[in-house]
Each structure stands twice: as structure tokens, then as C-alpha cells.
Amino acid sequence: QVQLVESGGGLVQAGGSLRLSCAASGGTFSSYSMGWFRQAPGKEREFVAGAAWSGFRPDYEDSVKGRFTLSRDSARNTVTLQMNSLKPEDTAVYYCAATRTYRSRGYPGQYDYWGQGTQVTVSS
Predict the structure, then answer these.
(1) Fewer CB within 10 A of the terminal residue: the chain, N end or C end?
(2) pLDDT digits (tens, 9 = 90+) for 29-69
(3) CA-CA distance, 22 to 37, in Å (whole number)?
(4) CA angle, 15 as apex, 93 and 20 as ends, to 5°?
């Protein structure tokens, strides 16, 4: 059973940084693709960043390019989203997701497994 556990959310002022981690277990993640999504109140869940574990070439949603960086630790089956220069519009619940298909980005329905989410709040 694949499990994804996020950590690292919190409250930060605009311009600050947060680091989100997703610990994955229960699968052979070298054949998975990982993604981060976010959902703000009243809005649909949207893609933020993602990469296929094999090769690991991250892709990003346009509004976070140059500010967010996705990385992995294969030894620990962990993916990390480093978020810099945070803006109030980045406020949302952030979810880690995984799929067995090879992709660097996608829609929520294309991912098979989800974490419980972690709140990120950016104050102005």
C-alpha cells in the first residue's frame, strides 16, 4: 500500500521560504512519477511541480517557476519542494501525489495516490 506523508507547512511572511517534504513508502518509486498540487479555498486543486522519478526532470506551473525547486532523495524515498519568495497567493493546502505513469506534470485525476495535505499560509 503506497503511503505519502507530507510535512513542512506553516505560516510565513511574504518573501519568506518554506520547505515541504513528502515521504513515500509501500512502492518501488523508481517507476513512479511524483507531483505537488495545491488547493486554495474555493478553488480547484492545481498542479504545482512534478517529475518522473527516473531521470527526474522537474516541471513547474508557470507562477512558481524560478521560486520553487523540486528535488528528490532516492535513498529516503523523499521528494522535497523548496519554496522561496513566497507570495500571499501561494496560500493553500499542498498535497503530494504519485502515479505509476511516466509524467512530469498532470491533472489531479491522473495521480493514483495522495498525501493528507499540509497547510501553507503566506501573510502579506
Answers:
(1) N
(2) 888 999 999 999 999 999 999 999 998 999 999 999 999 99
(3) 12
(4) 35
Grid coordinates given for 52:
518522473
**Backbone φ, ψ for residue 110 (5° rounding):** -90, 0
Question: What is the distance between the alpha carbons of residues 82 and 79, in angstroms, rounded to a whole number?
Answer: 10
* Distance separating alpha carbons of residues 113 and 76, to the nearest angstrom: 18
Which cell goes with 64?
512558481
HSE-up of 23 (CA within 13 Å, CB side)? 4
Q: Report which of 74, 68, 59 is spatially closest to residue 87, judged by C-alpha positions.
A: 68
Round to whole Å and give the CA distance between 108 and 72. 21
Q: Residue for cell digits 522519478?
A: 53
pLDDT at 27: 86
By DSSP bridging, strand 59-60 and strand 68-73 are: unpaired
* CB within 8 Å of 82: residues ≥ 6 apart: 17, 19, 68, 69, 70, 71
Per-residue pLDDT tens digits for 73-96? 999 999 999 999 999 999 999 999
pLDDT of residue 115: 97
